[in-house]
Request: fold
Amino acid sequence: MAGLHSHHPPEDCLNCEHRHLRMFCNLTPEALQDFDNIGIMMSHARGAKLFTEGDAARNVFIICFGQVKISSTSRDGKTMILKIAAPGDVMGLSAVLANVPHEVTAEAIEPCQVKTIRKQEFIDFLGRHGIASMHAAQSLSGEYLTVFHDAKRLALSGSAAGRLARLLLDWGRAASNGKPEIRFTMALTHEEIANMAGTSRETVTRLLNQFRRDQWIVIKGASLTISKPDQLERLTA
Reply:
């Protein structure tokens, strides 16, 4: 039965059973109580935009439940998906701390629950709690590493199969939070996955079917389980 609860959004920060798995929210009791008192919990439907590239950065957003697509658009209208943000991820942090407009767009790709905290309220909170400041710094460092790994994946992995395998492994490991089963909700279309893997929609469909036939992955509805991570890892080498 325990697994069922992970599908329900937490009511507040104090009663969130996933908190210890999530870097930013894993706070001392005192900081957690303070954190619970700031900001507001908001629900967003699939397709809702939390903020758009170029908007003034007025809030910081922490995902409690659901997944959010982070993307950027070029001058000629091409959109690149940079990341799928998951529970525990802090969005808008770099723009708020650097006092610049949002450099990306954040859109819910499934129903989400997000804690929204006003800029000054968040900065004051960091000032009161050293552990929160340290976790914010780690979140920023994680953002940088994500961008770095994405660039590396696109530039250095020779095959489309290797790039797709790396993407699936990254998503699966982020969603499983250290649990042995590597399973996640595939909320993106094949077109969007192709965008992230630097390949075509047809290639993504063909490779996913191939991975299924080889029994490396199991797809049931929107749920994808990686049954043979070692085989996928081999493709990324």
In short: Confidence is low (pLDDT under 50) at residues 1-6. The longest strand covers residues 59-65. The longest helix spans residues 130-156.
